[in-house]
Design a protein that fits this description.
- One of its GO terms (molecular function) is nucleic acid binding.
- This is Integrase catalytic domain-containing protein.
- InterPro entries: RNaseH-like_sf, RNaseH_sf.
- By secondary structure, this protein is of the alpha+beta class.
- Helix content is 39%, strand content 13%.
- It is built from 24 helices and 20 strands.
- A hairpin with a 5-residue loop joins strand 9 and strand 10.
- It starts with a strand and ends with a helix.
Length: 667
């Protein structure tokens, strides 16, 4: 059965509004544009002893239906809340008003408790400071006593329309137009899409709000309503803030570094790695000005190979005499030196950057397998032993943190340190450049390696070293039996070449317009050989192999000799001697066979073919056949040269004999 009248609290619960809004609606006699029938009753302790109530029959249809549903289910209009947040809120409020509830209603003791609590600040269930006012405390006590202390009666009731949009664009705009729900939703969605596009395109807040406001004005005008007041098309700031996520698209397109810095990461551990199992390679500036021999200054480059298992670093230092960058040849030389150091050796997996100076690393995949343990196949050994870092992925390269640490904590103690900012370098005096390191290149290298030794012996709290130094961590692995895998430098050099096929001409090969030869080629009688040409650095010698991969020798450029230089004759004789000895050796390596006899023997061993008897005999009539078959006439033989000369001489003699008779004068 529905109650005949309801108070402001019940009206607030039914309409899902605050109690203050419900009281204002009752005082106005209207709610949601619907008139209310209000009655005043006596007997209350507030508002001068009067209380305003609303006839339930005057409620809007949807509120009457809600009141009917709640009454049919036996639930009080204010409903119940059973979530954990509501429980925490109810218990906190109950703890605050518990001293008041322990006193008699209307007593001086209760008034004293109110005075004690009013104006105080408590930390609420969310950790937020909450200022207690008189109206708040009175409302909590009244609600608790009216509900009889029902479970969670002090918790705020959740709105039934939570998550639903109640205002489209702004309140000022909605007051200025009379569009239906569907039209307002369409305008709101179109405007949202426009705002998102602006933010995606990089528009800043002020520009986005201005352009979107103008767009709202145009859209509204298209629906037949002209907005005259600027406030009606002004866009609230929250309208912009709700779409700020589209900034990520603009940042990803225009500032990839910032976008990559915000990408999700995974956590990795190096606790179970052995020394040199994973090595990270990179090149970085040393932020110290060093004076060259010619008086100019530059910052050296540091080529580092970081063993992430022990945090040790093998490094090489380079100072260019002129402007330039680190080349593949420089990195190759540093890598070869590391592979010969018994404290480091060949890495198991090499983590390289994507720069051009690391192109040689792709040739190391097979060589790195030499340091891999033979284990059962589980998919891991199928992985390439050279891993390329992704662009803008400094967080994945452990050596980046090492560079930063060395530059900030160790290299700052070197004369000439200028820090990372080249536009605003560190200097001991304002307005002057820092004096460069001028004690010589050898002294500078000794200083760097000395600081590196200090770094390796200082305990590290972060990471997997557990407050021990890199040197101590390496010592543990050595005592456990770890040994480095070394490689011959000549073998390593063969990795950084590209094989090309060349024709052998006079025991020489032509490469880049120059002829190359060696004693191995003098002894080689193949028509083609493989020349291994270095990929990344200049060369004065070339490795030569045959097409089966067998070593022939190391070829050098074939130098020309002066015409009268005796050394040329000696070298020619030596080459002929080497070639002849090779021919003799080659000839003696197989038995001698008389090919003519072999052919005759082969012919004799073949069975002769016996022809069949003739089918018929054709006779020829000599008389009839005469004239049909002509005997061939041999072609006239050509005259010899002597005969031609004799004929010519005879012709000349005849002409001379005839000439005087034709030119004789009359007497």
């Amino acid at each position: 059965m529905l109650p005949s009248f309801i108070d402001s609290t019940t009206l607030a619960e039914l309409a899902q509004i605050s109690k203050q809004a419900a009281r204002r609606a009752i005082a106005k006699g209207e709610i949601q544009g619907h008139p209310l029938q209000v009655t005043t009753i006596e007997g209350t302790r507030s508002h001068g002893g009067y209380m305003h109530i609303v006839s339930s029959s005057s409620l809007p249809a949807h509120l009457r239906q809600r009141l009917h549903d709640l009454a049919a289910e036996g639930i009080a209009p204010e409903g119940l809340r059973i979530d954990a947040t509501g429980l925490a809120e109810h218990n906190w409020k109950l703890d605050v008003i518990r001293p008041i509830l322990g006193t008699a209603r209307g007593s001086s003791a209760r008034a004293g408790e109110y005075r004690r609590l009013i104006g105080t600040t408590r930390i609420d269930w969310t950790g937020t400071p909450r200022h207690l006012t008189k109206s708040t405390l009175y409302d909590w006590v009244e609600t608790f006593e009216r509900c009889g202390g029902r479970h969670l009666c002090l918790a705020k009731k959740p709105r039934n329309d939570k998550g639903q949009r109640r205002v489209f664009v702004s309140r000022e705009w909605e007051k200025a137009v009379s569009f239906d729900q569907a039209t307002r939703e369409q305008v709101h969605e179109d405007l949202k899409q426009y705002m998102r596009s602006l933010i995606k395109g990089g528009a800043q807040r002020k520009i986005a709000l201005t352009l979107t406001g103008e767009k709202l004005r145009q859209i509204t005008l298209a629906y037949g309503v002209e907005l005259a007041d600027r406030k009606t098309w002004a866009i609230p700031l929250d309208f912009y803030r709700e779409e700020q996520r589209f900034k990520a698209v603009y940042r990803h397109k225009t500032d990839r570094k910032a976008s990559e810095d915000n990408k999700p990461r995974i956590r990795r551990t190096t606790a179970n790695l052995a020394p040199m199992e994973v090595v990270v390679m990179d090149v970085h500036h040393i932020n110290v000005l060093v004076q060259r021999d010619n008086g100019t200054t530059a910052t050296p480059k540091l080529i580092a190979f970081h063993d992430i298992a022990t945090n040790r670093v093998f490094c090489e230092i380079i100072l260019f005499e002129e402007r330039g960058g680190v080349r593949n040849a420089d990195v190759i030389e540093a890598f070869i030196n590391m592979c010969q150091d018994p404290s480091f050796g060949v890495p198991g997996t090499l983590y390289a950057d994507n720069g051009a100076e690391y192109g040689f690393a792709d040739d190391l995949a097979d060589a790195l397998q030499l340091n891999c343990s033979v284990i059962g196949f589980n998919g891991s050994e199928d992985r390439n032993r050279v891993i390329r870092a992704k662009p803008y992925n400094a967080a994945a390269k452990h050596v980046e943190g090492w560079f930063r640490q060395m530059n900030q904590q160790y290299f700052r103690h070197i004369k000439g340190w200028i820090d990372d900012d080249r536009m605003n370098p560190k200097s001991p005096e304002v307005g002057k450049k820092a004096p460069p390191f001028d004690d010589g290149w050898d002294t500078f290298q000794d200083t760097i390696y000395g600081l590196l030794t200090a770094y390796e012996n200082i305990p590290q709290k972060s990471g997997s070293l557990n407050n021990i130094s890199p040197a101590a961590a390496f010592k543990k692995h050595v005592e456990a039996g770890w040994k480095a895998t070394l490689m011959n430098p000549q073998d390593l050099l063969t990795l950084f070449t590209r094989p090309e096929t060349r024709d052998v001409r006079k025991h020489c090969v032509e490469v880049f317009g120059q002829y190359w030869t060696c004693d191995g080629l003098l002894s080689c009688f193949d028509r083609k050989v493989i020349v291994h040409i270095p990929r990344y650095h200049g060369f004065s010698a070339l490795r030569i192999t045959d097409e089966r991969g067998h070593e022939i020798g190391i070829a050098h450029a074939d130098r020309p000799y002066e015409v009268l230089d005796e050394r040329g004759a000696k070298e020619s004789a030596r080459r002929s001697s080497v070639r002849n000895r090779a021919l003799t050796t080659l000839g003696k390596s197989v038995p001698t066979i008389d090919v003519g006899k072999e052919l005759m023997s082969f012919g004799h061993r073949q069975e002769p073919v016996t022809p069949n008897n003739p089918d018929a005999v054709i006779s020829v009539n000599r008389r009839g056949g005469k004239g049909l078959a002509l005997s061939p006439t041999p072609a006239p033989k050509g005259k010899t040269r002597q005969q031609e000369e004799d004929e010519a001489r005879q012709l000349m003699d005849a002409l001379e004999a005839a000439l005087p008779s034709k030119t004789r004068k009359a007497s």
